[in-house]
Every structure is written in structure tokens, then in C-alpha cells.
Automatic annotation (TrEMBL):
The keyword Transcription applies. CDD domains: HTH_LacI. PANTHER family: HTH-TYPE TRANSCRIPTIONAL REGULATOR GALS (PTHR30146:SF109), LACI-RELATED TRANSCRIPTIONAL REPRESSOR (PTHR30146). It comes from Peribacillus muralis. It comes from the Bacteria. Residues 2-58 form the HTH lacI-type domain. One of its GO terms (molecular function) is DNA-binding transcription factor activity. SUPFAM superfamilies: lambda repressor-like DNA-binding domains, Periplasmic binding protein-like I. The keyword Lyase does not apply. This is LacI family transcriptional regulator. Pfam families: LacI, Peripla_BP_3. Keywords: DNA-binding, Transcription, Transcription regulation. InterPro entries: HTH_LacI, LacI/GalR-like_sensor, Lambda_DNA-bd_dom_sf, Peripla_BP_I.
Length: 349
């Protein structure tokens, strides 16, 4: 077993210096270069900071005898408050864990990005598995999965080598586009957001990729001015839709495919305020099937995503991985369906 002494010898510093860095002790300064070398040695040598963590490693080869029944959840603490999509996922996770007598521990992305806090979080909290919704980088994923199983939800983790619970975002949008084409629409726009840190890289996002493919398969041309990147903010969706209408009111799409219900509801408000009839002038179609879509004016057509089931299945999967019933990083893709309401139900001639 690697000790503090081994790290100190490799870096060429005292054991107390190594201890201060690992414990994030701020009482005495250690320069950044030395800190970086110590953390590099910690990762390279595979140092495990406490007895609980050593038990985790030892129990990989044998049935775990000491259980904490704790599952971590990495998510932006405001996500569930701001976006009902995440609230439904959280409820599914919580219900499944509670039914199986597990406790859910909330962990923030910031706690994992600080290396000292990362070690404390993974090795001191006693969590047996980790559910990921907020985005963490690949290096963190590789480090964490050495010790505990991971399950990823949402689009950040679609292409990662960990267990995934998700739905096919591209296929959902393709289905929407093909429905609109059957309704007689040929001029179709898109409202969505990107996937990088600032959410600006729209062209890498799976729902937009589905839109591109569907338009190509139906022989329709994408008009760049009808593609609105809102960076997932309702205010931006409202402002950009308003700008589009004002810029060229005689050359507008007859339908807007929106990557979320929240984006659609904000854009519809901009349309109504500018005397655009929905769906007679422009049809709107969202994704998520949030409760508020039933009460928008008009009622919003949408893709029903099984949000609660995604959360429940994620919790069930992490439990089975913790208990050794699942060994491989499974990928479970849940079904979706179109919900047709007033915002798109008129056939164009």
C-alpha cells in the first residue's frame, strides 16, 4: 500500500508537506509547482488517503462486508429548481434509492474539481456509487471509476465509457421533423443550445444533429437564419425569436422545432406578442413533455421523455453495480413518443 512517505520521496519533499497538500491545509503555503508534482505523484502511485478508501479497493476482490448505503449525486443544485426536467429525474432517483434503503448524498461539481476535495469526496464520504448529471471532465471520470461505479445521465455522458441511462435525442427530433413534413411543412427552423462549457457549440449537440439528418433525409434545406442558438436560456429563446420575426416578417419558417419545452414556450410568447398565429402561421414543437406545456397558450406539442423512469433506472443500475450484479458499463436507451397538441395540429395545404 502506498504511503505518504512514498509520495514525499518521489517528489523530494517532506512528509508533512505532502500531508498539508492532500488535506488542503491553508495554514502554511506550498507553491503551485510543488502542489502539482504532489498531485501527479498521488495519481501515478495510486495513493489512497484513508482506511475507508483502502476498504473499497480491497472489497473489489471480495464481497463487501461493511456497507454505507450511500449513493452520490453530482448535479447543479439549482438545476431541479430551475428546470422541471431535472426535478422529475431526481424524484425517480430518490424514490428508487429510498425503496432499497439507500441514502442520496448531494455533491457539487466544484467539490470534484478541487483535487483536495475530490479525494475527500470519493474516499471520506463513504459513497458506494456516483450518479452524474452535471458535467465533469474525463480525468475525473477515470480517477473515480477506479474506486466506485458510475452511472451517467443526460447528454454530457452519451459517448463516455461508463454506464449510461438516456434516450435517443437525435431520433426524437427526426421523428418531430418527419411529423411536421407530413403536416405539409417545408420551411422548418430550429431552436436549441450547444454542448460545450458556454453551450455555444450547437453543431455538436445530438438534437441538432437529428434535425440536420431529418432535413437532409426529407430533401429540405436548412435556412441558417432560422437556426437559433439560445444556449439553453428561456430569455434568449424569447429574444432570438422576436429578433427573427422583426428582421424579416415576410420570410419566416412555418414550423419551429425546439430542443426543449422551455425554449418552445418562450419562443411562442415572442410569436404571439408579434401577432403571429400558432399554429396557423408558425407551428411549434418542443421536447421533454413538461407539465407546464399543457397550460401554455396554445398547448404545446412535445416529445414525451420518460424523465422519472430515467431517474429510477439510473438508481436501479447504480445499486446493481454496487452490489456486484452488473459488471459491465451498460447503456440503457429508454423510449419516447410524440404528444400532439394545439401548437402543431393544423395540416398545411
Amino acid at each position: 500500500m502506498i504511503r505518504l512517505k512514498d509520495i514525499a520521496e518521489q517528489v523530494g519533499v517532506s512528509i508533512s508537506t505532502v500531508s498539508r497538500v492532500i488535506q488542503n491545509d491553508q495554514t502554511r503555503n506550498v507553491n503551485q509547482e510543488t502542489k502539482a508534482r504532489i498531485w501527479e505523484a498521488v495519481k501515478e502511485l495510486g495513493y489512497i488517503p484513508n482506511q475507508h478508501a483502502r476498504n473499497l479497493v480491497a472489497n473489489k476482490q471480495e464481497k463487501r462486508n461493511v456497507r454505507t448505503m450511500k449513493i452520490g449525486w453530482v448535479a447543479n443544485p439549482k438545476q431541479a429548481e430551475i428546470n422541471p426536467y431535472f426535478a422529475d429525474i431526481y424524484t425517480g432517483i430518490r424514490d428508487e434509492l429510498t425503496n432499497n434503503e439507500y441514502n442520496l448524498i448531494s455533491i457539487t461539481k466544484d467539490e470534484l474539481e478541487n483535487e483536495a476535495l475530490l479525494l475527500k469526496t470519493i474516499h471520506d464520504l463513504g459513497i458506494e456509487g456516483l450518479l452524474l448529471i452535471d458535467k465533469i471532465n474525463d480525468n475525473m471520470i477515470e480517477y473515480i471509476q477506479q474506486y466506485i461505479p458510475l452511472v451517467g445521465l443526460d447528454f454530457f455522458y452519451a459517448d463516455k465509457n461508463i454506464a449510461i441511462i438516456d434516450y435517443d435525442r437525435a431520433a426524437s427530433i427526426k421523428m418531430v421533423v418527419k411529423y411536421l413534413v407530413k403536416q405539409g411543412h417545408r420551411d422548418i427552423g430550429f431552436i436549441g443550445g450547444g454542448v460545450n462549457e458556454t453551450f455555444e457549440d450547437l453543431y455538436a449537440e445530438h438534437r441538432f444533429k437529428g434535425f440536420q439528418r431529418a432535413m437532409e433525409e426529407t430533401g429540405l434545406e436548412i435556412q441558417p437564419e432560422w437556426v437559433l442558438n439560445t444556449r439553453w436560456k428561456m430569455e434568449n429563446s424569447y429574444v432570438e425569436m422576436k429578433r427573427l420575426i422583426k428582421k424579416n416578417p415576410l420570410h419566416l419558417p412555418t414550423a419551429m422545432v425546439c430542443a426543449s419545452d422551455l425554449m418552445a414556450i418562450a419562443a411562442m410568447r415572442a410569436a404571439r406578442e408579434n401577432k403571429i398565429r400558432i399554429p396557423e402561421d408558425i407551428a411549434f414543437f418542443g421536447v421533454d413533455n413538461l407539465e407546464m406545456g399543457k397550460y401554455s397558450s396554445p398547448q404545446l406539442s412535445t416529445v414525451d421523455i420518460p424523465k422519472y423512469e430515467m431517474g429510477r433506472m439510473a438508481a436501479k443500475t447504480i445499486i446493481e453495480m454496487v452490489e456486484g450484479k452488473i459488471k459491465l458499463p451498460v447503456k440503457i436507451i429508454l423510449p419516447f413518443e410524440l404528444v400532439i397538441r394545439e401548437s402543431s395540429n393544423i395540416k398545411r395545404t
